[in-house]
Amino acid sequence: MQLTKEKFKERFERKLDDYFENDIKHASNSELCAALSAVVRDGYAPQWRRTRISETHEGNKQIYYFSIEFLPGTLLKSNLLNLGWLKTVREALKEMGLDLDTIAAAEPDMALGNGGLGRLAAAFMDSLASLGYTGNGNGIRYKYGLFKQKFVDGYQKELPNDWLKDDHWEVRRESKAVPVRFGGKVEMVDDDGWLTPRYEGERVVQAVPYDIAVVGYKDGITNTLRLWDAEIPPQDELKYPTIADRRKVEDLTSILYPDDSNYEGLLLRLKQEYFFVSAGLQSILNYFIKDLKQTDFRKLPEYVAVHINDTHPAMAVAELMRLLVDEHRVDWDTAWKITVQTMSYTNHTIMAEALEKWDLSMMQDLLPRIVQIITEIDRRFVESLKGKTSDDVIERTRIIKNGRVHMAHLAIIGSHSINGVAALHTQLLETDVLKDFYELYPKRFNNKTNGIVLRRWLQIANPELSDLLDQTIGTKWRDDSNEMLKFENFYHDTKTLNRLEEIKLDNKKKLAKFIKKETGIEVDPTAIFDVQIKRLHAYKRQTLKLLHILKLYQDLKNGIDHPKRVVIFAAKAAPSYVFAKQIIKVINETANMINNDPDIHGKLKVVFLENYNVSLAERIIPAADVSEQISTTTKEASGTSNMKLMANGALTVATMDGANIEIKDEVGEDNIFSFGLNKDQVYKYYADKSYHPRNIYENDPVLRDTIDSLKEVPNCNGEPQALVNNFLSDNEEFLVLADFEAYLAAQKAVEATWAQKRIWYQMSLVNIAHSERFDVDKTIQRYAQDIWHLKKLHIEKTK
Ligand code: 26V
C-alpha cells in the first residue's frame, strides 16, 4: 500500500489519540512505539488476509518450519522496511519533531532463542515471505525470552526478560486451539478391526496459537509465525483446582532453556518439545482436512513439508505417525511413506554434548503412545537392515539403545533430507559424525550453507553504507543482492574508498558514544574496532582473543608500539556453564586493568558490552573493523555473525572453519586474514592424542609470558588460574595454545594492513560486494528447490 507522509501523520496521531488519549508532544517513547506499531499492523493486515485466502485457494505446497527457537529481534523497522515505508515514515516523523530510532528503541527484543540457530529460523521466515513462498514458523510462545545479562563485579548475572509486556505484534487465535495429551496409561484395543489406543489418567492441555505476521519484502507475501501457549482446557477447569496445578500448565511455556552448551535431559524440556510438535502437526492436519478439504493422506506431501530444525522437534516423526495411524486410520506402511516424504532435518552442530538422547523411562511416563510408536519405528528399522549391513552398524544407528532414545537417529530415519549448514560441516557429518547414516542413505544428505537477512544488516543497521551503494551501483541491489558484486568496480575509486572510511568512522563514533553511555569507558573512534560477538563457548575461543589482548598489553608496557585498538566483546554464557562464566569474569577484570592503566596512554581498550542481542548487534556490526571468527577448526558448524560483519565491511580474522572457508573462497585469500590448524591437523591431534600444550608453553617464551601474565589479572577469585589450568591440560579440546602463534601472526598482518588505509578499504569493499553470496534468500531458494519443492504463491498485490 502506498503511504504518503501526510496520510501517515494523520493515522499515527489518530492511533495515539485512540490508544492513549495523548498527542505527540506528551506521549512517551513506548506510547509512540505502540501507536506506530498499530499503524504498521493496519498496513499489513489486508496482505496477511489475502495471503491466507490465496494459500487455501491455490493449495500451493507450504513449508512448516518447526523450531524450538525463533529470534526475530525487533520487528518495527523491519516491518517498515518490508512494507516499503521506512523512508517515508522516518521523514514524516522528523517533520513532526520525532526520531524513528529513538521510538524504535522502545520495542523489546523478541529473544526467543539462544543464538545462531534461533536467529537463522527468524531469517528463514523473513526470506520465505520475501520470496513469495508460503512458509509458516511453528514454535513456542515463551513468556520469558533469553535472560537479560548484567555484570556485577565482573560476573554475569541473569535476569528475566519479560518481553511480552510491551509486545505489539501477536494475535491470539483461540479458534485454532488444539488439545495436547500427556501422561496416563495407554492400552491398544480392537475397534472394528483397527487397533486403537485407549487412554486412561492422562492430562490434557490446551495449545493456543499466537500468530505473528511475517511481512515479506516489497512484493513478498505475509506469512505467519505461529507460537503456541499452554492453557487449561476450558472443559477441564475442575481438574486444575489449585494455583499449583495451574502453574504447572503455565510453566510449560514459561521459559526458554538458556543452555546451548550442554544437552540436559529435563522433563520440562521434553514436555515443551512434544507440546509444540503435537500442536503444530494437528494444526497442519486440520488445515489439510478442513481448509483444503482433502481426504487422501497420501497427498499430504504434495501440500505440506515439515522441517525439523535441529533435533528438538524430532518427535514430529513419531507424532505424525500417531496422528495418521491412530486418529486417521492410515495403515502403518502408508503412513511411514507419507511421514518420510513430509519430513526433512537440519543438523546444526557436530558437538557430541549437544546430541539429545531422552531417557526411555521418562519418555514412557510422559508420552506412552509416542514411545510405543518410536519402538515400532526402531524395530522395523533394525529389521529392514538385518542381513544388509553389519550388526555393528545396526547397533550404532538404531534409535533406542541402552534405555535411551536417540533423537538425531529418529530425525534421520524419518526424513527424506538431512543437511548441514556449511560445506565443511556437511562434509564432517558425512565422513565422521553421521558416517553410518551417510552410507545407508547417501542421497538424503546435502549441504545448505546458512545465510543472513542482508536487508536488515545493511538497510536497517547501516543506512549510510546503503546510501553509498545506491550512489555507486544504483538502487537495484536493494531488491537483488547479485547487484552488489558491481561494487567491486569501485575498487580503485578513491572517492568511494574515502567515503567508505568516513562512513565507518561515523558508525564508530556512534558506537563510541553508546559505549561511553553504557560503560563509562572512553574509546577513540579512530582506533581499530576489533569485534568478537557470539555466545560464550570454549570452542569459539574468546580465550584466544584474551591471550592476544594480554600480549598487546605487555608489549605496550614494554614500549613496543601497536596501532590503537579497541577490543569489543558481547556474549552471553549459559547460566550453568561455569567455565564460560569464568572467562567473562577474567575478560571483565582484564578490561578494568587495561582501561585504567595510564602507562599505555589509551592505546588499548577492552569493552565487554552487556546483554548481547539482535539490537546490540545492529549497533556493533556497522562499526566493526575486524571480525573475529576464531573457533577451533571443525567446531563451528557455520557461524552467521561472520557474514553480517563481512557485509558491513569488517575484515575477517578466521580459522578455516564453518562458513569462514566459503567467505575466503568468495573474497580470495588476499582479502581475509586466515590462520591456524586445518581440519586434518585438528583431527590428527585428536586421533593420536599428540596435543601437549605444556610443551608448547615451555618452548614458546612469548606464550609463556602471556599465560603467566594472565595469573596476574587482579580482583578475581581463582578464575585466571582455572583458565591457565585448562589451557595447559592435555585434554584441552579446543587447542587454544596450538593456534596462538599463528593467531599473533594474523594480527600482525592486520596491523600492517591498517597502516595502509587505502588497501584496508579496498579489502573492505571486496568483502561488502561479495557478501551477496550469503544472502539468506539464496539459501532459501536452495531449500525450496532441493528439499521442500515449493512454488511461489501468486497473490493480488495491495494497491
Ligand atoms: C553448541 C554446542 C557447542 C559446545 C558444546 C555443546 C553444544 C551444544 C549446542 C550447541 C549449539 C546447538 C545448535 C546451534 O545453535 N548451532 C549453531 O547453528 C548456527 C545456525 O546454523 C550455526 O551458524 C552455528 O555455527 C551453530 O553453532
Automatic annotation (TrEMBL):
GO terms for cellular component: cytoplasm. One of its GO terms (molecular function) is glycogen phosphorylase activity. It catalyses: [(1->4)-alpha-D-glucosyl](n) + phosphate = [(1->4)-alpha-D-glucosyl](n-1) + alpha-D-glucose 1-phosphate. It is an enzyme of class 2 (transferase). InterPro entries: Glycg_phsphrylas, Glyco_trans_35. CDD domains: GT35_Glycogen_Phosphorylase (cd04300). Pfam families: Phosphorylase (PF00343). One of its GO terms (biological process) is glycogen catabolic process. It comes from the Bacteria. Its main location: cytoplasm. Its cofactor is pyridoxal 5'-phosphate. Keywords: Allosteric enzyme, Carbohydrate metabolism, Cytoplasm, Glycosyltransferase, Pyridoxal phosphate, Transferase. Its EC number is 2.4.1.1. The modification N6-(pyridoxal phosphate)lysine is found at K644. It is found in: Cytoplasm. Allosteric enzyme that catalyzes the rate-limiting step in glycogen catabolism, the phosphorolytic cleavage of glycogen to produce glucose-1-phosphate, and plays a central role in maintaining cellular and organismal glucose homeostasis. Phosphorylase is an important allosteric enzyme in carbohydrate metabolism. Enzymes from different sources differ in their regulatory mechanisms and in their natural substrates. However, all known phosphorylases share catalytic and structural properties. Belongs to the glycogen phosphorylase family. NCBIfam families: P_ylase. This is Alpha-1,4 glucan phosphorylase. It comes from Lactobacillus intestinalis.
